[in-house]
């Protein structure tokens, strides 16, 4: 294991890491230790309340998620980074939400899958470290293993946890991805920052399904992002109308947040809008065959929800759109080939249009 001869050498190396991070396209880099005891108790309280829904992986790894050295032995420090993702020249999010014939897709998913982009950059950073100091123990993570990335980012000084549970940064809002390198290097923490949400409750008030049940506490079972992405089966009827035209994720709590006045647009080509997904017509998206879906979503994070959930989500949005005979016709045309689960949502959508005519 590589060692540093003094605290000054450690601090100088962290400054070098920050410089390399900027060169690799990260907007910020910080370092934390591995003590996540506070986050551990919060996590298990959240799980005890069943707020994780069907995301069983949140509990199935035991303490590995909150004790980094159990997941990756000998981990002593964690390098945490953030990368802006808000694509420039994309359709205005509020405009799309106010046009129910369009499909709203969370801004993070409009371009290339962030897992691949960040992981490659973090690997390049690890290679730079190895070239500089020699062999060292490490493992790269991007939302792909039992890692408490948000508490880690907070300890590293990348921001604070907002009341919507996203990380907020005074200079960048919340439109950014996180990634980590677990390492056996002994490095000084870069230090946490003060919280600046104050008495604001805008995110709680705006949530379409009241999923933010208390400040800093999101009940995933009510969250549109969970319902459209993580939930594999039928979406509870009580939430369908509130979903509006949100067909993959939900950004309402970020769109309303005052700190996102300072959000920075991404400079990464990989996060630019693909296939017009920032403001496409629902009827166009619903007309795709499974082969078209797989082809168009190649390299996109959306691909992982698979075709059934894609059709399910769009069927709900079409049911929420103003009546038009073409919508009913499109819904009926998909019935013969759709799965039983999707057909149930199509039938619900058709009933909404029948009611609109009454």
Automatic annotation (TrEMBL):
<feature type="binding site">
    <location>
        <position position="203"/>
    </location>
    <ligand>
        <name>[4Fe-4S] cluster 1</name>
    </ligand>
</feature>
<keyword id="KW-0170">Cobalt</keyword>
<feature type="binding site">
    <location>
        <position position="253"/>
    </location>
    <ligand>
        <name>[4Fe-4S] cluster 2</name>
    </ligand>
</feature>
<dbReference type="GO" id="GO:0005737">
    <property type="term" value="C:cytoplasm"/>
</dbReference>
<keyword id="KW-0479">Metal-binding</keyword>
<feature type="binding site">
    <location>
        <position position="257"/>
    </location>
    <ligand>
        <name>[4Fe-4S] cluster 1</name>
    </ligand>
</feature>
<feature type="binding site">
    <location>
        <position position="143"/>
    </location>
    <ligand>
        <name>cob(II)alamin</name>
    </ligand>
</feature>
<keyword id="KW-0819">tRNA processing</keyword>
<feature type="binding site">
    <location>
        <position position="225"/>
    </location>
    <ligand>
        <name>cob(II)alamin</name>
    </ligand>
</feature>
<dbReference type="Pfam" id="PF08331">
    <property type="entry name" value="QueG_DUF1730"/>
</dbReference>
<feature type="binding site">
    <location>
        <position position="232"/>
    </location>
    <ligand>
        <name>tRNA</name>
    </ligand>
</feature>
<comment type="pathway">
    <text>tRNA modification; tRNA-queuosine biosynthesis.</text>
</comment>
<feature type="binding site">
    <location>
        <position position="65"/>
    </location>
    <ligand>
        <name>cob(II)alamin</name>
    </ligand>
</feature>
<feature type="binding site">
    <location>
        <position position="197"/>
    </location>
    <ligand>
        <name>[4Fe-4S] cluster 1</name>
    </ligand>
</feature>
<feature type="binding site">
    <location>
        <position position="250"/>
    </location>
    <ligand>
        <name>[4Fe-4S] cluster 2</name>
    </ligand>
</feature>
<feature type="binding site">
    <location>
        <begin position="250"/>
        <end position="251"/>
    </location>
    <ligand>
        <name>cob(II)alamin</name>
    </ligand>
</feature>
<dbReference type="GO" id="GO:0046872">
    <property type="term" value="F:metal ion binding"/>
</dbReference>
<comment type="similarity">
    <text>Belongs to the QueG family.</text>
</comment>
<feature type="binding site">
    <location>
        <position position="223"/>
    </location>
    <ligand>
        <name>[4Fe-4S] cluster 2</name>
    </ligand>
</feature>
<dbReference type="GO" id="GO:0052693">
    <property type="term" value="F:epoxyqueuosine reductase activity"/>
</dbReference>
<keyword id="KW-0846">Cobalamin</keyword>
<dbReference type="InterPro" id="IPR004453">
    <property type="entry name" value="QueG"/>
</dbReference>
<feature type="domain" description="4Fe-4S ferredoxin-type">
    <location>
        <begin position="188"/>
        <end position="217"/>
    </location>
</feature>
<keyword id="KW-0671">Queuosine biosynthesis</keyword>
<dbReference type="Pfam" id="PF13484">
    <property type="entry name" value="Fer4_16"/>
</dbReference>
<dbReference type="InterPro" id="IPR013542">
    <property type="entry name" value="QueG_DUF1730"/>
</dbReference>
<feature type="binding site">
    <location>
        <position position="178"/>
    </location>
    <ligand>
        <name>cob(II)alamin</name>
    </ligand>
</feature>
<dbReference type="InterPro" id="IPR017896">
    <property type="entry name" value="4Fe4S_Fe-S-bd"/>
</dbReference>
<keyword id="KW-0408">Iron</keyword>
<comment type="subunit">
    <text>Monomer.</text>
</comment>
<dbReference type="GO" id="GO:0031419">
    <property type="term" value="F:cobalamin binding"/>
</dbReference>
<keyword id="KW-0560">Oxidoreductase</keyword>
<feature type="binding site">
    <location>
        <position position="207"/>
    </location>
    <ligand>
        <name>[4Fe-4S] cluster 2</name>
    </ligand>
</feature>
<feature type="binding site">
    <location>
        <position position="167"/>
    </location>
    <ligand>
        <name>cob(II)alamin</name>
    </ligand>
</feature>
<keyword id="KW-0411">Iron-sulfur</keyword>
<comment type="function">
    <text>Catalyzes the conversion of epoxyqueuosine (oQ) to queuosine (Q), which is a hypermodified base found in the wobble positions of tRNA(Asp), tRNA(Asn), tRNA(His) and tRNA(Tyr).</text>
</comment>
<feature type="active site" description="Proton donor">
    <location>
        <position position="143"/>
    </location>
</feature>
<keyword id="KW-0963">Cytoplasm</keyword>
<keyword id="KW-0004">4Fe-4S</keyword>
<dbReference type="GO" id="GO:0008616">
    <property type="term" value="P:tRNA queuosine(34) biosynthetic process"/>
</dbReference>
<dbReference type="InterPro" id="IPR017900">
    <property type="entry name" value="4Fe4S_Fe_S_CS"/>
</dbReference>
<dbReference type="GO" id="GO:0051539">
    <property type="term" value="F:4 iron, 4 sulfur cluster binding"/>
</dbReference>
